[in-house]
Amino acid sequence: MGIPTTYTEQELIVALKKRSNDAYSYLYDHYAGALYSIIKQIITDNNEVAGDVLQEVFINIWRKIESYDPSKGRLFTWMLNIARNASIDMLRSKNYQNSQKNQELPDNVYKGTNHQITQMNVDNIGLKKVLEKLKPEHRVLVELAYFKGFTHEEIAEIQAIPLGTVKTRIRNALLQLRDYLQ
Known about the structure:
This protein is mostly helical and about 180 residues long. It folds into two domains: about 10-100, Orthogonal Bundle (Rna Polymerase Sigma Factor, Chain: A); about 120-180, Arc Repressor Mutant, subunit A (Orthogonal Bundle), CATH 1.10.10.10. Helix content is about 65%, strand content about 0%. The longest helix has 22 residues, at about 20-40. The radius of gyration is 27 Å and the shape is rod-shaped.
């Protein structure tokens, strides 16, 4: 009978620091939805990952409640920062990055209107003609970077020119292409 059904913020903090299970249940029931919304604003594409982050947030709250300082802000603001940081950490993690790179494409992604496989051909969309307007030393670099997938460092090595020159020429070429396409 001595268990309150509602807490003031100060009562909740005291109960959380005493490791009260009832206080944590109350905290979860009243704040999980708001924290999940914050997480979903950052991790927009995967509900399962967002749910995992929410669980991690409540574990961090449990572990770090002693470090909460009421003089620095409200409890919700402190929890919001934990949720935001956990979400950003998840986005930056290698596992998350790799999972985004390894997603399968649907079967029909390369099918045309007649359900025939079509190949990406630079000539079909007119880029070849626009690229021909570039200086040969610029065109080669753009082709290596954007059509063959080489990095700037690899292009510098292949062409035996300084890295800065590669970057400058590619940038100039892209500016020229932008002008041609406008």
